[in-house]
Amino acid sequence: MAGPAAAAPVYSGSPCARNAKWREDDKGADVKPFTPEKAKEIVMSLQQPAVFCNMVDNWPALHWNTKYLSALLDGKTIQFRIGMKTMDLVPQFETRCSYVEATLQEFLAWSCGQPSCLSGPFSCYEYSKYWAYADYKYIARLFEHKEEVFQDIKWSDFGFPGRSGKESTLWIGSEGANTPCHLDSYGCNLVLQVQGRKRWHLFPPGDTSFLYPTRIPYEESSVFSKVNVANPDLKRFPEFRNATAHMVTLSPGQVLLVPRHWWHYVESIDPVTVSINSWIELDADHEARVEEAITRTLVCAIKSAENPSDADLWLNPTEIEATSHDINLQYLNRAVSAYFKCQKASVSEQAHPSSFGAEKMTSASRKRRKRQVGTEPEGCKLLTHEADFSTVKAEKLQKISFGPHLIQVLPQSQETSSMDARAVESDYRDLIHGNEGGHFGKLHCARKLLVMSNDCEMPANQMDSDGSPNASQTTLSTNDLLDCLVNPHVISLVAQLLLERTRI
């Protein structure tokens, strides 16, 4: 890949003054290698990871380094996850980490080895032995009183009008900070690297069985791998040999596209790193939310029936508590209802096709909000429109030209032969509480929109002949769910998986 984007100019004065100066200097620097429409077509149709270059040169967010963010936060504390730098055969899940509350100034002092850290929140953690990670920090919450900074992030350049920092997440880490290998159940992912470099290990959805997936520790919409992909235990997980790693080192100014259901392990390789990402909703998320609702109901029911044990860290720290069966069943019903509602909207859209311009998309996009229980979900119409992009056929994909502005992330075995001066440098979640009680996981901004809606309270498991909900039917019950779970086909598959587990 072409080298990192040119360093952002340094301005003195307050962050707001620097923002104004940045925008003034870059008024004419808005020529992009891809139009928003073309960029969106790529994002919604490309089924392999790729790196966009020269798409964000005029984004004010490029100067969101840790010193700038420290001044912007003005002493506000954030939570850091602390992990060991030593490489174990077992993944360093979030349940195995320690946590501290600290300011960015304290984090910077610790990462620089300043003596003041001897008595600060990082005093128990020697920098040479530990890493720190402020991950999943929702910008809308972090800067809730400084909403003007949301506009520093312009996902509209990628064809998503109205999407800004408000729908984005901030990640700040020290060298060695990492996210265990996992896949996201919902959406696809756009990741902007701002400061330092991160190495991404990516695996295609077809490698899922080779990565030994697990839902323990449980976190909504995250399926973890039992394998530490950076130091695999091949005796315990021999099938991992068959996995195909796609590796890329992401540098400042570059934007990585992580397609739906691609596994990824991410590690910081510079002393300090800053990244910003946004999960893009996909039409397939509706079915995925039904699957996630079933998973949550099962995990919470079975684990809650056990005698509690401090040693059994089955719930990821991103999940505040195990939700009750009644709340989980309510979640399931509304997920099913939303699924059928958008299925109906999709059929209607196909029957009555209509064009939608940038103005219409902007209006729909502006309606994006983090959802809580009892609120209107993401508009089905928006998801239907985005599905139009996801159904691009093979002949359209052939029109996607890779080059200096869009770099393929290739399998490890192909990287050496394909790299040139322009090649990618390759060295190999909004906590939302329900208004009706309970917690539905680390709802990653738009990625993890709850499907609970006043409009979706009608039972969705039964439909009239015209596709509309049949109000005469009852909602899904525990017995309905249980009947599906004990279906002979399901039991047979579970038995095979349990028998296979004994061989590991």
TrEMBL record:
The keyword Cytoplasm applies. PROSITE patterns: JMJC. Residues 131-295 form the JmjC domain. The keyword Cytoplasm applies. InterPro entries: Cupin_8, HSPB1-associated_protein_1, JmjC_dom. It is found in: Cytoplasm. Keywords: Cytoplasm. Its main location: cytoplasm. Residues 351-379 are annotated as: Disordered. May play a role in cellular stress response. This is HSPB1-associated protein 1 isoform X5. It comes from Apteryx mantelli (North Island brown kiwi). The gene is HSPBAP1.
